[in-house]
Write a structure and sequence with these properties.
The chain is mainly α. It has one domain. The chain has four helices and no strands. Helix 1 packs across helix 4 and helix 3 runs antiparallel to helix 4.
Length: 95
């Protein structure tokens, strides 16, 4: 078992929301939801960059037995993270 920051699962869920293309303003949730209160923008960016990079690395490996679509999913997840980071880094408050 491992324990991380209380907001990590929420951030990873928001990444999945973006991957699915849901009509949710994830930036508003980051700014307004109590789960993310007090979390530094740089911390969000750092975690997103790390998990995105991890997905890109994992997507390059052969698929495990009985999971032929896993690498394609990881590749899509990586691109969703990359796009979110690109948008965050071009937002006015992050300039």
């Amino acid at each position: 078992m491992s324990v991380g920051a209380r907001w990590l699962d929420g951030l990873f869920y928001l990444l999945d929301v973006r991957l699915r293309g849901e009509a949710v303003d994830v930036e508003e949730l980051l700014a307004q939801h109590p789960l993310f209160q007090g979390v530094a923008e740089a911390d969000v960016d750092s975690v997103l960059a790390a998990v995105t990079g991890g997905f890109f690395v994992k997507a390059q490996s052969p698929a495990p037995p009985n999971m032929p679509t896993l690498r394609a999913f990881q590749h899509r997840e990586a691109f969703a993270g990359m796009e979110w980071l690109r948008e965050r880094w071009t937002l006015p408050q992050n300039s």
